[in-house]
Design goal:
The protein is α/β, with parallel strands linked by helices. The protein has three domains: 53 residues, lambda repressor-like DNA-binding domains (434 Repressor (Amino-terminal Domain), Orthogonal Bundle), CATH 1.10.260; 126 residues, Rossmann fold, CATH 3.40.50; 130 residues, Response regulator (Rossmann fold). The protein has twelve helices and 14 strands. Strands 2-1-5-6-7-13 form a six-stranded parallel β-sheet, with helices on one face. The longest helix is centred in the first third of the chain and has 17 residues. The chain is elongated and about 80 Å long.
């Protein structure tokens, strides 16, 4: 028996192969009446769509390359794991496969993986901003791309962004509104655009209340929980101790809080903490962390929506997610 194809279903229904694909992948673009007609034919014939057939008909791979380059976007980071969840869930709605890969750099030149170099992908999603070398290499191709959690303001490419300046301002302001005037700062200097945004938000909050901060309370060498622990140790070794600490990333707060507790101080009794992210652990850490919640699954879903728009040849503007949703928990104590 000859295998039924998408074109056969389209001929039976008197529609285009694209309309059949929209129905198979549960996408908009066809009327309810046409959708019912195609589904009835599919059910009657027992048709099973072939990925290879779809590729031939639509001249697409139905792959999306996901570049997990090493700077900041680790699979061990719960922030990015949640983004991936949203990305994967949304990819199912469009019928796309997500293929994990990495754009490496050798001697300041980007080395594109085979899936990109051989154009076996319809689009590329980048975790964080592309480097100058990667941007140059990608710009020479005809493959659309979207950056996720890009930190560069006014980036010349489509991205899904978090307003870290606003998030930092919101988190720091909460400490100030609870009476704190001696506030330390821990952030990540290895990603300059991220550091600049978080520091600007912090400064905007403290300057509003004419608060001065000792230089040794500004720590910018955190990259993970362990290095944030070290940063907090430097703060505690100073001449005076803050009553509160703003951490630009929740995981930095976890490391800093451990350091404080290991030095015999209590949280929030002696030192309060606030952060940005609202990862899963933030609610279960003891004490639970006050933080600005970023909808990470929404970031992933939006990235998928944007790349599909670009694959279709449509304009796709950058999007900034809500960045001032404060979640108040146990880590901040009000002081008089």
């Amino acid at each position: 028996m000859t295998k039924i194809t998408i074109r056969d279903i389209a001929n039976m229904a008197g529609v285009s192969p694209a309309a059949v694909s929209f129905v198979i992948n549960d996408r908009p673009g066809v009327s309810d009446e046409t959708r019912r007609k195609i589904k009835k034919i599919i059910e009657k014939t027992g048709f099973q769509p072939s990925v290879n057939a779809s590729r031939l008909v639509f001249r697409r791979s139905f792959n999306i390359a996901l570049d997990m380059h090493s700077v900041g976007a680790s699979l061990n980071d719960l922030f990015y794991v949640s983004i991936l969840r949203g990305l994967l869930d949304q990819s199912k709605k469009y019928g796309y496969n997500i293929v994990f890969t990495e754009i490496e750099e050798v001697h300041n030149e980007a080395v594109l993986p085979n899936i990109i170099r051989n154009r076996d992908t319809d689009g590329i999603i980048l975790m964080q901003s592309p480097s100058a070398a990667a941007l140059t290499a990608l710009s020479s191709l005809d493959i659309p791309f979207v950056a996720v959690d890009a930190h560069e303001k006014g980036a010349p490419y489509t991205c899904v962004c978090v307003d870290y300046e606003l998030a930092s301002y919101t988190s720091t302001s909460h400490l100030i509104e609870n009476g704190h005037r001696r506030i330390a700062f821990i952030s990540k200097g290895s990603v300059p655009d991220f550091y600049i945004q978080t520091f600007q938000g912090f400064c905007r909050a403290v300057e509003k209340y004419d608060i001065s901060i000792p230089p040794d309370w500004i720590q910018v060498t955190a990259d993970d929980e362990a290095s944030a622990y070290v940063c907090m140790g430097h703060i505690l070794a100073g001449k005076s101790i803050p009553t509160a600490v703003f951490c630009a990333v929740d995981s930095f707060a976890f490391g800093a809080m451990k350091c404080v507790q290991n030095h015999g101080y209590s949280v929030p009794g002696d030192i309060s903490f606030s952060g940005v992210d609202n990862t899963l652990i933030s609610d279960y850490f003891k004490p639970s962390l006050t933080t600005v919640s970023i909808d990470k699954e929404q970031i992933g879903a939006l990235a998928m929506d944007l790349i599909v728009e670009k694959i279709a040849g449509k304009a796709a503007d950058s999007v900034t997610v809500l960045s001032n949703n404060l979640v108040v928990r146990e880590s901040v104590k009000r002081v008089v």
